[in-house]
Amino acid sequence: MSPFKLAWSELRRFRGHPIRVAALIAIILIPLVYGGLYLWFAWDPYGKLDQMPVAVVNEDTGATIAQDGETTDVNGGRQLVDQLGSDRIFDWKFVDAGTAAQGLEDGDYYMVITVPQDFSTNLASLAGDSPEQATVEFDLNDANGYVAGIMASTAEAELRNQINTAVYVTFAKTIFGDLTELGAGLTEASEGAGTLSDGIGSAETGASDLESGLTDLESGAQEVATGAGQVSDGVDEVVNVAQPVVDGLSTNWSQIQSGSAAGSNLVNDAATDLQSVYDALCTGDAASTDACATLQAHIDEAGQVNTEVQQANGAVQSTTAASLATASSDLSDLKTGAADVATGAGQVATGAAGAELGASDLQDGLGDLQDGADNLASSLSSAAAEVPTENPADDAESAEAYGSPVQVKETNLNPAETYGRGLAPFFIAVALWVFGLIAYLLLRPANPRAVAGPLRSPTVALGGWLPGALLGLLSALLLYVVLDIGLGLDPKYVLGTIGLCLLVILTFSAMTHLLKLAFGSAGSLLIVVLLMLQLTSAGGLYPVETTPQFFQALHQVLPMSYAVDGLRVTLSGGYSPHLVRAVIVLVVYLVVSLVLATVVVAMRRKWKMDSLNLPLKL
Asked: Taking every annotated instance into account, which residue ranges of this chain make up the domain ABC-2 type transporter transmembrane (predicted)?
């Protein structure tokens, strides 16, 4: 007979009566009832803190502060109440002190937040020479539920942010006066900085045009300087040749005038004489027409030459030696002036080049100035937008940023998302262990006839384990389906989670089967003891490092620790070697339990008195 037939024979014992069938169904439902109900009620308690009633008592009497001859009212308690009302962390109940105290005692409120009378007074002292720290009182009552107090304390950090936000707004108003006027002033300053930026932009454009004009001027001045130098060199050459001639003429000008007069007279006499010759030769009938015509031509030419000579002589006679000396001096002045013009043109070119560099620096400076003005306008605009309102409820998000200027950014590599999902690995493992405890209260760990019969011990041992294993597989699958569909377990690795749950139930059922087979009714007690030890050492609720050394040692050897580690990986993700290690350890426990069960069956075939008369029976 095979182990499966033995298992089927054991399951057939429960047929024939509804109570027996119901007992098998109850065994299958045990993990679902245990694990499912617990995870259901504890799935996301921190997501419903806004349903926990918390009383808020505002006893603050307010305060006044005088600054620059003006009186400012400070009411930090009202600011705090408004701020709390804008963010519903808890179910706020704004009541008086008597109602709050009675409600905390009666269990109507889980916590009371009290703003004392001197709250605003202490805040106002921040503007003086003797600042006092303002306080807010938190009152709890563990008689209403210690865990509720822990949950309230968990949200205390957020409460502190809300309190700091309200305090910041009150403090800013106390120190800086009217925040509305501050925001308006910053806005006006921002607009002025924008106008300044526009003006600087226009100036920068003008500087760019100036630089361009100076570049052209520098280029033209350089050309003028070059031309002036060439003119100066040419004038020098001309003056160097002409001035000695003029000086020589000036020295001998009297003799030149005399010679000019003599030559003029001689030419005039020659012209007169030719006319006389013509009159003598060409007036008679015997005159030669051709010769007279030629002679007349010479007479005309001589007359023209005489006219020119007389004009030149007139010019020579009208020019004085003093005028020639003046001309020589003017040539010297011309040479000096041309040199001065060349030098001046070079200086203009150099100055234009310097002015061009200055205009470029001016443009760069104006550009930097415009950038600074733009940054100033942007900064002032941002500052004006960030000035909080006097009422934090009007701008709770901004007020929160001011009250808590530093935000902690948290990164979770494998987030569990909810409280229940984070505890699911632990309670799934516990529920599957509890299955073995309940299952072998009804199932026989071994068929007595098979133990007494000829079947081999491994067959008998497997036949005794398989009924619980098969029911356990159904139970584990049912638990997973309900958690996934009903609560939204949504594991990261679906098949991995299902497979690991099946391995865990096989291992746990094999271990509980072994204990029940080896120790009988005492085995049930051992199963409960092992459950207690694993509950405290598996690290499912608290980090194992925070537990005593005894439980840390058990954590390394008991199988539930590895079941929890493996399920954490399949549900939320994580370090895959942990999953591999968990599978290996669970398989080892499974195999060892089945081998030891075979050994126990073999030993039970040696009949003793205790075999017929059990020492303990449940």
From this structure: 24-166, 376-598
Q: Which residues of 540-572 are buried (b: 16+ CB within 10 A; e: fewer)?
A: beeebeebeeebeebbeebbbbbbbbbbbbbbb
Coil vs helix vs strand at 233 = helix
Q: What is the mean pLDDT of residues 211-237?
A: 65
**What is the biggest distance separating any 2 CA atoms in the chain, rounded to whole angstroms?**
206
78, part of any domain: yes
Question: Domain tally for the chain?
Answer: 3
Query: 53-58 and 91-94 as β-strands: parallel, antiparallel, unpaired?
Result: parallel
User: Positive or negative CA dihedral for 155, 158, 164, 169?
Assistant: negative
Q: Give the separation between CA 55 and CA 383, rounded to whole angstroms.
A: 36
Structure tokens at 402: 């001011």
Q: Which tokens in the block code for residue 50? A: 């806004």
DSSP string, 246-259: HHHHHHTHHHHHHH
18-31 vs 457-482: helix crossing angle, rounded to 10: 70
What are phi and psi for residue 55, nearest 5 degrees? -85, 140
Distance (Å, rounded) from C-alpha 118 to C-alpha 134?
Answer: 8
The reply to whether the predicted model has a pTM over 0.70 is no
pLDDT digits (tens, 9 = 90+) for 512-571: 999 998 888 888 889 989 999 998 898 888 788 888 899 899 999 999 999 999 998 998
In a domain, 32, yes or no: no
What SS3 class is residue 107? coil
How many residues would you count in the chain? 618
How much is the pLDDT for 599? 92
* Token pair belonging to 184: 């308006």
Query: Does 437 share its domain with 548?
Result: yes
Q: In what order do the strands lie in the sheet with 53-58?
A: 91-94, 53-58, 111-115, 137-140
CA-nearest of 521, 496, 499, 524 to 434 is 524
Do 128 and 242 sit in the same domain of this protein? no
Predicted pLDDT at 586:
96
